[in-house]
Amino acid sequence: MIALRRLFLTAVGLFLALPLIVVAGVSVNQRQSLAFPPQGFSLSWYGQIFTNPEWRNALIASLTLAAFSALLALAIALPLAWFLWRRIAPWANIFQLLGIAPFTLPPVITALGLLTFWATTGFYGQSWTAVISHGIFFVTLPLVTLSLGFSAIDRSLVEAAATMGADDKTVFRTVVLPLILPYLVSGYAFAFVLSLNEYIVAYMTVGFTMETLPIKIFNALRYGYTPTMASVTVLFLGVAAIVFGLVARFGDLPKLLGAMSEDR
Amino acid sequence: MRREPPQRPADYGPLLFPAGMLTLFFVVPFATMIAVSFFQREQGGFYTPAFVFDNYARFLSLFFGRVLAFSLFLAVAVAVACVVIGVPFTYLLSRSKRNIQIVWLVALLSILSLSEVMIGFAWSTLFSRTAGLTNLFVWLGLMEQAQALTPSFGAVMTAMTYQALPYTVLVLYPALVRLDPTLTEAARTLGASPIRAFFTVVVPALRNTILATLIMVFIFALGCYLLPQLLGRPQHWTLSVLITDQAIYQSNMPFAAAMAVFLVLVSLALVGLALYTGRQKEAK
C-alpha cells in the first residue's frame, strides 16, 4: 500500500516536474539549439537576460509593473478589509465581491473590459494603465489574505486599546497593523509573483507599446526558438519558489491556503 | 473594538479609495464592454455607438457553434482529468507530514503562478522532435524515430491539465485537510482496504466538494487562451482565443465584446451553481 502511494505521488510529481526539467536542460545548451540532453554546458543564456537590451528591458518592465501593481492592489485591499472588519455595513460586501470577481472570471473578460475602457478614454497604450489594470486584476489576493488576517485578530485586544482612549487611527497603527503584517506581506507577494507572470491583461492593455517578459517570450516564440526563453522560465520559477518558500518559512502556508479557498 | 455600524460620514472614509477604484476601473470597464457589444462595427476596425444585436446574431453561425462546443468539451475534459488525478493526490497530500505538505504546496504554487506562455513553451519543448519525450522512447527502443507531438489535441489537453492541476489541488486542499480522519480509520477497522475505504468513505463524504471543484476547474479551463494557440491547430481554438483574436487581430471589438459578455454569463451561472453545491453540504 505504501509502495502504491509512493508510486502515485511520484507519478504526479514527475508529470509536474518533467516539462521544467527539460526546460532547465535546454537552458544550459552551449549553442542556440533546442536539444535535450543539453550539448555542452553554458550559463550564457542566463547572462543574456541581463546583457541583451531587449530581454533586459522586458525584465525591468515586468519587475516595475509587478512592484507597483501589487502595491496598488494592497492599497485598495487594505482599507476595504479594514472597513469590512471594523464596521457593520452589509451593503459594503458588494465591494468585496467586486474585488474577487476579476480573479474568478476567465481573465480574457477583465482584459477585454479594460481594453475597451482604455481605448474609449483615450489612454490606450500608456504604461501606467497596465499598473492600474494589474492592480485591479490582482486585488483579490491581498483582499483574501487580509480578510483572513483581520478575522484572526482577537477583538478584545483592540477593545482594550480603545477603552484606554486610543482612536481608530492609533488602534490601527499600534495594534492592528503589527498583527496583520504577515498577511500584508504574503498578499503583496502573491500579487507580485502573479503580476510578473501575467500575460493577457498586460498584452491587451499595453501589448503594442511595452513588452513584459511573458509578452516578450510569446513574441519571440513566433519567430522561432532562443534558449533565453528557457532561462527566463527557470528564473521566474526560481523567483516564485523563493517567494512562496519565504511565505511558508515566515508564515503559516497551510493555514493561508486552507482559508484562501474558503473565502472564494 | 466592537463592530458597529458607521455613524458619521467620516466613518466611511476608508471605503472611499477602494470603492472608487473598483467602480472606476472594474465596473465602468465592464459596462463599457457591454455597451460596445451592442455597437455597430465600421470598416477599418472602428465602431460607432448604436444599439444593434448584429454581434449577438453572429452566435447563430455554424463556426461559432463549433468553437463553443469545442471549448465546453475541452473544459469538461480538463476538469474531469484534473479531479480524477487531484482528489486522490490531495487526499494523500493532506495525510502526509506537515513539512512534506509545505514543500508540495510551495511547488504547486510556483507552477500555478507560472505564466501560461512559459507552460506552453515548456510543453512545446517536451513535445518537440529534437528535445522531446520521443527521444526517450527511441532510447528505450519503443520508437523507431523521434517525432514532434505538436500541434495536436493531446498536447493541448495535457498542457491544460498541467496548468489546472495545481489549481485543482489548492481548491480541494482545505476540504480534505479538514476531513475527519476517524472516518477512514473506522472503515479500516471494519476491514476495508485503504483503496476501498477511499472510494466508499472519502469520495462519498466529499461528493459536493468534488462537484464544486469540477465546476471551478471548468471555469478555470474555459479561461485558457494561449495553450490552444501554442500547442494546437486552429480547430482547437477556444472561445477565449477567439475573443482575443477578434479584439486584437481582426479589430472587431463589438463582436469580441459580445462573446465576452456571453462568456461572463456562462461563468456566472456556473459560479452560482458551484456556490450552491458547496452550500449543500452544510444544509445536510
Fold blueprint:
The complex is a heterodimer of chains A (264) and B (284).
Chain A: H1 2-26, H2 44-51, H3 53-86, H4 93-104, H5 107-121, H6 127-137, H7 140-151, H8 155-163, H9 168-197, H10 200-206, H11 213-222, H12 227-250, H13 253-263
Chain B: H1 13-36, E1 40-41, E2 47-48, H2 54-57, H3 62-94, H4 98-113, H5 116-126, H6 133-140, H7 153-177, H8 181-189, H9 194-205, H10 207-222, H11 227-231, H12 239-249, H13 253-283
Antiparallel strand pairs in B: 1-2
What would you say this structure looks like, in words?
The complex is a heterodimer of chains A (264) and B (284). Chain A has 264 residues and is mainly alpha-helical. Chain A has helices spanning 2-26, 44-51, 53-86, 93-104, 107-121, 127-137, 140-151, 155-163, 168-197, 200-206, 213-222, 227-250, 253-263. Chain B is mostly helical. A two-stranded antiparallel sheet of chain B has the order 1-2. Chain B is globular. Chain B starts with 12 loop residues before the first helix and ends with a helix. The mean pLDDT of chain B is 85. At the A-B interface, helix 1, helix 3, helix 4, helix 5 and helix 6 of A face helix 1, helix 3, helix 4, helix 5 and helix 7 of B.
